[in-house]
Design brief:
Number of domains: 1
Strand order of the largest sheet: 4-5-6-7
Radius of gyration: 28 Å
CATH architecture: Orthogonal Bundle
Helix content: 40-55%
Structural class: alpha+beta
Length: 217
């Protein structure tokens, strides 16, 4: 009887040892797969990442308005970071802001609940983009005109005086934080913090006001 027990115990030990070895090898493989590649290994990918990096609190050089296809919306992203900044509902209901759920916007949508938005185009003056309007069409035969200035002006009005001043000086005039701090008599840290909070409020305001900005013809 004892011999039988000893044989069974050895068998269990063998299986236990094999399982432990398998776990160890799996863990080694996972660690190896999870190892971050060096900059030299990344090569051009690392250079591309650095070239497109925009630090938190900084602004992109360009802004992209692109169609959302079957979402029926227009999306706004920064370039080169490609961060999503805002969604402008146009041809479909948008629950986040209530667009398409009240009588006025339902009428604008033509009582349709779906859209297929394509080919956005910015308005121009003498061949140069003027930032006034954004036009986009829909597969259902609809055309939308979005007022870009109105939405930004309304969003700026929701900021405090200091927040609005910091945003305009930094993002419009190109002032540095030390220059802003000296001009309006706040610390450089306060200038950076104010800019960060102001941009967050602007993003929320632009999203909340989206239902007022789409005009259909």
């Amino acid at each position: 009887m004892n011999g039988i027990h000893i044989t069974l115990d050895k068998t269990k030990l063998k299986w236990f040892g094999a399982g432990a070895l398998l776990v160890a090898l799996s863990a080694f493989a996972l660690v190896s797969c999870g190892r971050a590649p060096s900059t030299a290994e990344l090569g051009g990918a690392a250079e591309a990442a650095v070239a497109t990096y925009v630090a938190p609190g900084d602004t992109d050089e360009y802004y992209l308005f692109y169609s959302g296809g079957h979402s029926g919306n227009v999306y706004v992203a920064g370039a080169p970071s490609m961060r999503h900044i805002s969604t402008i509902p146009v041809f479909t209901p948008y629950p986040a802001t209530g667009y398409g759920f009240d009588d006025d916007t339902k009428k604008m949508l033509g009582n349709l609940t779906w859209g297929d938005a394509h080919h956005p185009a910015l308005s121009e003056t003498k061949g140069d983009y003027d930032g006034r309007w954004l036009f986009i069409n829909d597969m259902n035969g609809r055309l939308a005109r979005i007022d870009l200035r109105e939405r930004l002006t309304a969003a700026l009005e929701e900021l405090t005086e200091v927040q609005r001043e910091v945003v305009l000086l930094h993002d419009l005039e190109g002032w540095t934080h030390p220059e802003i701090a000296d001009a309006i008599e706040i610390s450089e840290v306060a200038s950076r913090q104010t800019l960060f909070v102001a941009r967050q409020r602007l993003r929320r305001a632009l999203a909340d006001e989206s239902q007022e900005e789409a005009r259909h013809e």
